[in-house]
Structure formats: C-alpha cells, structure tokens
Amino acid sequence: MRATLTLPLLCLALALAIAAGGGLASSSKPRKDPGRPVLIAPRTQTTGCTLGPRPDRQCSPGAFATKLTQKLVCSSAFRTDDYRDVPQSLKYAVEKEYGMKPSKYGKTLEIDHIISLELGGSNDIANLFPEKRDVAPGYKVKDKLENRLHELVCTEHTMTLRAVQKAIAKNWETLYKTVYGVSP
Q1: CA distances from 112 to 28, 49, 60, 95, 126 (A)
Q2: How far apart are the two ends of the chain, measured CA to CA in Å?
Q3: Is the per-residue pLDDT at 170 higher than 50?
Q4: Whole-prediction pTM value?
Q5: Which is more confidently placed, 21 or 40?
Q6: DSSP assignment string, 12-67
Q7: Distance (Å, rounded) from C-alpha 150 to C-alpha 74?
Q8: Which of 98, 101, 145, 157 has the fewest CB atoms below 10 angstroms from its CB?
C-alpha cells in the first residue's frame, strides 16, 4: 500500500519542518569567507560606549575585510548576502557594549556596519554599531550614501574603495556632505 500526501498535508509537513528548525535545504547556503578584518583605528573600549547617531569610535572604529577587494565588490556576481554573517549573539554583544538591553528592536534600530559590506566592510564587532532609524540622520540616510559610494567606486571610478572605507569610518556625515553637497 502506497501512502500519498495531499497538498494540504504536504504544506503542513513542510511548515512543521521549518518551524522545528529544519529549514529548507537550499536556504542553508554556505557563506563565503570575507577574509580577516583590518581595523581602521584601534578599538580602545568595549564597555560604556556612547549611543548616538554616530558610532563611538573608541568602541567601533570601523573595519574592512581583506578579501572584499575593489575588484570583487565591483563584480556583477558580488552579493552581500554571500558574506553577511552577523549572528544574533554578536548583535547582542554590540548592544551590551553600548549600554542597551540586548533585544530584537525590529525596524526602530539596526546593528549597522560602519563600512557596509557593499564597500568591503567586515562583520567584525569593531565595524558594528547600533543605529536608530528615526534619529537624525538615521540609518536610511546612511544606506542612501552607501549605495551612491558604490556607484562612485564601481561605475564612475571617481573614488577608490580604500579612500571610501577610510572616509566613511572617520565620519559618514561629512562624507555625505562631500558627495551630495548638503548635510544629511
């Protein structure tokens, strides 16, 4: 006797497998190695970090990944999802360093890369900070800048990747003004 599953039972079985942590085989794609992190400046503090619109540079100086070269990030095959690997435990560690209660804040706050992955940034804690959405200028404005910088590096070739990494780590708002001619 052969058992057959109806479509509703098959959907239920799939949903239960996903809920149990089984996931789908295709979603367990291995991440690519971004290389070792190189800090833009020394990380001199790991507690008592100041939460504000900009990273506390003593805690979060910024870092790039050695294998995320200009040639690679400008390649049409490059996808940040292949390198994005910031576990929730590391996000909680960032929140704790900044004096926050470790929690999932939803869309009100994100643990952001100072140097974004599309600009060769590292997933290292030195390159992460809590950035609120609704605090001026907020993470949506920084995301806009990162997209434009990628164009300047990869399409227009008017900036080098290393220059962009250093400038965004130093002060992304100043870089925004340089790129757009107005403050964020």
Answers
A1: 23, 15, 11, 11, 11
A2: 69
A3: yes
A4: 0.81
A5: 40
A6: HHHHHHHHTT---GGG-PPPPP---EEESS----SSSPPPSSS--TTT---EEETT
A7: 8
A8: 101
